[in-house]
Structure formats: structure tokens, C-alpha cells
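Exam prep: given the inputs below (a chain plus adenosine-5'-diphosphate), describe the expected output before reading on.
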Amino acid sequence: MSNRTLTMIKPDAMKNGYAGAIIDMISKAGFKIVALKQLKLTAEKAGEFYAVHNARPFYGELVSFMSSGIIIAAILEKENAVADFRKLIGATNPAQAEDGTIRKKYATSLGENAVHGSDSDENAKIEGDFFFSALERF
Ligand code: ADP
Ligand code: MG
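Solution:
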């Protein structure tokens, strides 16, 4: 089992000024920040990150949203990181997310849902490598 996951603070949460509060929640939940950067994805890179969803009806909207503004990407470390982080962020649709989760508190809508969290150890590694070079994730 891996002890790392990859998160993004998405453009809605960045624009709404929630980055600091979200990072605070992540830290207080016991995740160590291994790597962190602020950047803006191009539509091409956003499309590459979400390529697994390219046949879904919301893909175009997702790519356009994820390249619409600045994001923060971070690698987080904790025992059972992938599952524990998915629990901390809550359901994809904030209307269905449990009270106290990041998406319940800070998401805008189903599409603009404040944060990303990897869904498996394998994808956590792929996604960490997408954003960070070997020199940045030690
Ligand atoms: P999660 O981010 O919870 O792992 P998915 O991997 O299923 O969710 O979807 C990736 C992202 O695509 C979601 O976080 C959300 O931003 C967007 N998305 C998912 N489903 C929909 C939908 N039905 N309509 C619009 N956007 C969606
Ligand atoms: Mg997912």
C-alpha cells in the first residue's frame, strides 16, 4: 500500500479564496505536504490529466474548467493516504458530500468541486509524476 496521494485545489476554490483553509484542513487531518506548487494548466495538459474521462459527456466542460485559472497541485503523505484523503474530501457531488468534508464546505457544484484526490495508489504515482520532477518529490 502506498502512503502518498495527489491533490489539486481546483480553480473555483482558488478564485473563492479557500486555498489557505483547504491546506489547513489537509494539515490538521495529518497529511504531510511532500511537494506543492501553484500553476495554470493549458487545455491540452488538463485533457491529458483527465484522459481517462475523455468519452464522458462532461469531459469538455471539465477540461475547460480545469484550465480556466490557477490551481495548486500537491503530493500528500500519510498512512493509507489515498483512501483517507478521499474520505476527507467527500463525494464528487458536494450535495452528497458528508458534513465536515472539504467538498461539502468549499465546493461550488458537481463539476467545480474544489479539490481533486487520486483514486488509487497507481494513479497517485502517475499523477504525482505528472506535476513534479524527481528533484521536487523527495
Ligand atoms: P472524483 O474527482 O471524485 O474522483 P471523477 O473522477 O468521477 O470524480 O470525475 C472527475 C471530475 O470530473 C470530478 O471531480 C468533477 O470535477 C468532474 N465531473 C464528474 N462527474 C461530472 C458530471 N456528471 N458533470 C460534470 N462534471 C463532472
Ligand atoms: Mg477521479
